[in-house]
Design brief:
Blueprint (H helix, E strand, L loop, with lengths): L1 E5 L3 H12 L3 E5 L5 H5 L5 E2 L3 H5 L4 E4 L5 H14 L5 E4 L18 E6 L8 E6 L5 H13 L3 E4 L9 H17 L5 H9 L2 H5 L4 H8 L4 H9 L1 H4 L10 H15 L4 H18 L7
Parallel strand pairs: 1-2, 1-4, 2-3, 4-5, 5-6, 7-8
Antiparallel strand pairs: 6-7
Bound molecules: nicotinamide-adenine-dinucleotide and L-gulonate (2UF).
Organism: Amycolatopsis thermalba
EC number: 1.1.1.45
Family: Belongs to the 3-hydroxyacyl-CoA dehydrogenase family.
């Protein structure tokens, strides 16, 4: 297939590596001055413009700035210039595509939201807008599955979709606990990695709770054990610039002495080992 990657930053380059690794013809468009260096030895073509990248594309994966104005302008161009059969997919983390397709034909547009980095993380949240056709959804699911991804079709648009709303809930409580001096960032990470993170890499929150209820299952947990949990009042982090700066400094104190590439490689190695243990080792 011919695939256009619009935006070659953290996510776009990872998608480009995955697409090229599966033998697709990939055209990358990005105004970044260091694009040649950023692309490195990836087997992709650097397009001189968005128009050139999408001209005969079968799929467009957009990975530009998370700004509504940007996505609105770009998707108007994609709808006008990409071939009529092309899937127009956005990696957006939180903006439903109905918000950036008002006034244009949104029938071929949907969210294909990955977790970073898409060449390792299997999930793609497939979120159609109300005008996305069923055929577009089917083709998008088929496309992501062909790449060894795990597409999950979500039934209704909400800002942040599912993954980021869950992540946001946990991140906000994590920040609150650090701001309250209950734990420091490294300690909080140790708590998650050695409990919830390990469990949720094997079973999700609902199956985990069902098993937590013992033989009585989720029903027992919800009607007996869960009562003390329902009394918990979660915190509201202080989002002020000063308080945020203090959290940033605490995270930098924990991890700032290690190179980004070294930390990312360690993350990917562990994640790939977990995927291999789950029989998903071919997701790269
Ligand atoms: N970083 C993540 O963890 C993550 C995960 C999933 C989804 N996303 C989403 O993916 C998208 C990209 O995120 P990112 O982290 O890769 O951002 P990024 O800042 O690393 O990359 C964005 C790229 O878009 C390019 N760009 C700017 N204007 C452009 C234009 N007119 N045409 C083409 N390219 C243009 C920039 O030069 C930059 O390279 C966002 O919508 C983001 O919400 C990010
Ligand atoms: O964590 C991820 O990779 C995704 O949820 C992203 O969409 C999200 O932008 C995060 O990077 C930041 O919240």
């Amino acid at each position: 297939m011919k695939i256009a990657v619009i935006g070659a930053g953290t996510i776009g380059l990872s998608w480009a590596a995955l697409f090229a690794g599966h033998g697709h013809e990939v055209r990358v468009s990005d105004p970044r001055p260091d694009l040649v260096e950023a692309v490195g030895d990836l087997d992709v073509h650097i397009a001189a413009s968005v128009s050139e990248a999408v001209r005969d594309a079968d799929v467009v994966q957009e990975n530009g700035p998370e700004r509504l104005d940007f996505k609105r302008e770009l998707f108007a161009k994609l709808v006008a210039e990409a071939p009529a059969h092309a899937l127009l997919l956005s990696s957006s983390s939180a903006i439903p595509s109905s918000e950036f397709t008002a006034g244009i034909d949104g029938s071929r547009v949907l969210i294909g939201h990955p977790f970073n980095p898409p060449h390792v993380m299997p999930l793609v949240e497939v979120v159609p807008n109300p005008r996305t056709t069923e055929e577009t959804v089917r083709k998008a699911v088929e496309f992501y599955r062909s790449l060894g991804r795990v597409p999950v079709v979500e039934h209704r648009e909400v800002p942040g979709f599912v993954g980021n709303r869950l992540q946001n809930a946990l991140q906000r409580e994590a920040i609150h606990l650090v701001q309250e001096g209950v734990v420091d960032p490294a300690g909080l990470d140790e708590v998650v990695v050695n409990s919830l993170g390990l469990r949720w890499a094997a079973v999700g929150p609902f199956l985990g709770s069902h098993l937590g209820g013992g033989p009585g299952g989720y029903r027992h947990l919800a009607t007996h054990i869960g009562s003390s949990m329902r009394r918990l009042t979660l915190g509201q982090p202080d989002d002020s610039p000063e308080a945020t700066e203090r959290v940033i400094e605490a995270v930098e104190k924990a991890y700032g002495d290690r190179e980004y590439t070294e930390l990312a490689a360690e993350r990917d190695r562990k994640q790939l080992a977990i995927l291999a243990a789950r029989g998903q080792g071919d997701t790269k």
